[in-house]
Amino acid sequence: MIGITQMIGIAVCGMLLSLLLKGMKSELYIVVALVTCGILLYYSLNLSLSVMEYLRRLAHRFSLEDVYLQTVFKVIGIGYVCTLASQLCKDAGQASIGVQVELFGKLLILVQALPIAAKLIDTLTGIL
Amino acid sequence: MGVEFIFQIAAIGIIVAVLNQLLIRSGREEQAMLTTLAGLIVVLFMIIGQISALFDTIQSVFNL
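Output (structure tokens, whole complex):
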């Protein structure tokens, strides 16, 4: 587990090295950015684990169905990865690829969320 | 896995960039391009393992 100062240290080091490599016209500047993002994402995953555990306990207390929470976590995971990829593409100057990655991520999230919406509508019509 | 991994890749990048300039100045453009390509491939091989580990972690955390 790392604190906020280590996190900022890693981010600043990665950013400076990436700029240094970009100044030297080396294509590896985007790889340094990718590795820095990967490491920071890895550490932020540890944080989100505790949040997810708390949410799961909360859901059990309100006897909420498990499938809802699973979908929420899936959507968050997809959001994490797609944002990382699309921002990296934009950093490298390939905005068009970034847009496609975002589009794919949104559609994937929609696919995950539709069954839940359908179930919600069924319960609503049942009540009315 | 950590900061030293970033430094390794940055070091390789700097060395490759300097070698590239060196070779270009000495008139060997082909070797320069090949050196840059080789550096890129070596770095990509290094990070493939780490990236797959990261994505496995994400899949296990969010059970995608």
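Chain A has a mean pLDDT of 90.
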